[in-house]
């Protein structure tokens, strides 16, 4: 068995004297592990860092074996990401989210989205909006997508301002009525007709977005799997707030 694919390194652990087991998110083969012989050498250490983009060639005798990786460097961004809290926590949050996906299950759209976020972790507001959208996409890929297209109560597509915490469907200001205080806020940049200039998303709207996705991640994924709220995500949110202060 053999294949070659683009990959994002998520992490690694030692194996034996000088080898490592690399966990990577690949474009076409999903989250996939592989053994890199000599991975602890001076030459490979700078390449096998979380956050780096590489090309991997995986080989194994049988499909269900761990297999070996041959790794070639492409974009070495790890050192840059480690220089700021936004970069470090952003990378760690993405890795934690991608680990929620079944191993070897392809999710090309999430792979591409992760690369986009990594390219904007020096822009707090944009990185936060991208992360919120990534979390919505993650929920969708795992079968818990939200319906933000029209109001669950009136069917209208305009003035959407809330989301039902039970059904995950959008609700307009009119449809919410006296129940508005029991609903989750829908930030304007996530509505079907967002502002033309998304740079206007202020801190409280980003907080609303993280509260929205966090509610459904907790209810549908973290709690059923007995996973505690990721510290990395909290760190990313604090880094965003600090940068915008």
Q: Give the tally of structural domains.
A: 2
Average of per-residue pLDDT values? 94
In what order do the strands lie side by side in the largest sheet?
Answer: 3-2-1-4-5
Low-confidence stretches: none
Number of strands: 8
Q: What would CATH call the class of the largest domain?
A: Mainly Alpha
CATH domain fold name of the largest domain: de novo design (two linked rop proteins)
Radius of gyration: 20 Å
The proportion of strand residues reads 15-25%
The assigned CATH architecture of the largest domain is Up-down Bundle
**What are the secondary-structure elements, in order, as H or E?**
EEEHEEHHHHEEHEHH
Structural class: alpha+beta
